Amino acid sequence: MRDTFCLAWDQAHGAKLVDFHGWNMPVSYDKGILFEHEATRTSCGLFNISHMGRLRIHGPQAYKFSNYAFTNDLTQCPIGSALYGFLLNDKGGIIDDVIIYKEANDHFLWIINAGGRETDVEHLKRLAAGKDLKMDLLSDETALLALQGPKADAVLKRLAKDVDLDKIPYFGFGRGTIQGKSAFIMATGYTGEDGYEIMVSVADAPQIWDLLATQPEVTPCGLGARDSLRLEAGLPLHGNDIDEKTQPSEAGLGWAVKPQKEGGFFGREALNPNPSRKLMGLTLEGQNIPRSHYKVLSEGKEAGEVTSGIFSPTLKKGIALAYVRTEFKDKPLAVEIRGKAVPAAVTKLPWVRHITKSKAK
Asked: Which residues pair with residue 32 across a beta bridge?
């Protein structure tokens, strides 16, 4: 397994470490997942997300290439802001969901998932063959931290210099310093809360992590809380809720696909506008906990399958993302738990979202 800059700190602070896509990562620290989840919702959680991939594409053809490789439309993205979208395969399946930050018309920072650090790059290199551009792989020389929660802004304003955080819109970014060290500060996250993701040099990361972790409002958090937070926020996880066999329209993510944009995008011709299943949010009755791969039923018939499910720490109910076949979408649904059909209400996503920052206009 690969280690991040934070391994020694993790081991010294009671981390329960697991293999996550080949990375030695904490599920939680000594106070546990529920404590970390609640701390992020009420104050500020700090996450090490350095396992995720980072690359910069730049050069004369970087704009045209990035827009073709990506389903969203970078012509609608102002410099200093970012877009969410997908890399698709030739069948229209989601190789990965990514965020692209537009640094200039010829410079784009890509943030990709841990599981795509090799596959995404291989795909992009194939598409880039013969193009006048450069692809700089930043994953090993940088670290990525996430500071999330209602008090994240106050914490970072106290520590970050040479940047006006109030001028960074939601899904925007800026450059500043923390303890004199260069920091690329992005107003994005995966928790449904206001906050920032911060890219720094891997050499500077231990010092900056320790500074952030020792702030009175801040609770270091592991992957367990990150997963429960993102699920309450209705955010899909690649490998669970979306994958290379999933098309964006099936997952309710068609808003991040712009088939009419000039030049199109790779995989566009394979998209099916009328999928046979849809990803839905389900809220269960009582204290029942839905789990991945549990069957979704409708009047005794199998209607679909849960992809992600938890007992929501915030709502105190079982919640799930599940694919349901379209013929059952307007019918009563239930999740099969230990042989019992537990009624489930279709719920508009997200369950929890506290974003107060506005996007760039």
From this structure: none
Q: Which two tokens stand for residue 330?
A: 């307007």
In the predicted model, what is the mean pLDDT of residues 90-103? 98
> Collapsing DSSP states into helix, strand and coil, what is residue 275?
coil
Token duo for residue 261: 């944009």
- pLDDT tens digits, one per residue of 56-93: 999 999 999 999 999 999 999 999 999 999 999 999 99
| pLDDT for residue 359 is more than 90 | no
The structure tokens listed for 242 are: 């979306």
Please report, in angstroms and rounded to a whole number, the separation of the first and last CA atoms in the chain. Answer: 43
Under DSSP, is residue 62 helix (H, G, I), strand (E, B) or coil?
A: helix
Residue type, position 302, single letter:
E
Measure the CA–CA gap between 16 and 119, rounded to whole angstroms: 28
For tokens 């394979």, the residue is 270
> For residue 31, what are its two tokens?
């106070």
- Give the pLDDT of residue 361: 65
CB-CB contact of 166 with 160 (8 Å): no
CATH assignment of 7-52+140-232, among 3.30.1360.120, 3.90.1150.30, 3.30.160.40, 3.40.50.2000: 3.30.1360.120
Angstrom distance (rounded) from CA 273 to CA 279:
14
Q: What is the pLDDT of residue 285?
A: 85
Peptide bond into 350 cis (omega under 30): yes
Residue pair 136/56 in contact by the 8 Å Cβ criterion = yes
> How far apart (Å, rounded) are the C-alpha atoms in residues 334 and 324?
11
The predicted model scores a pTM of 0.97
Beta bridge partners of 125: none
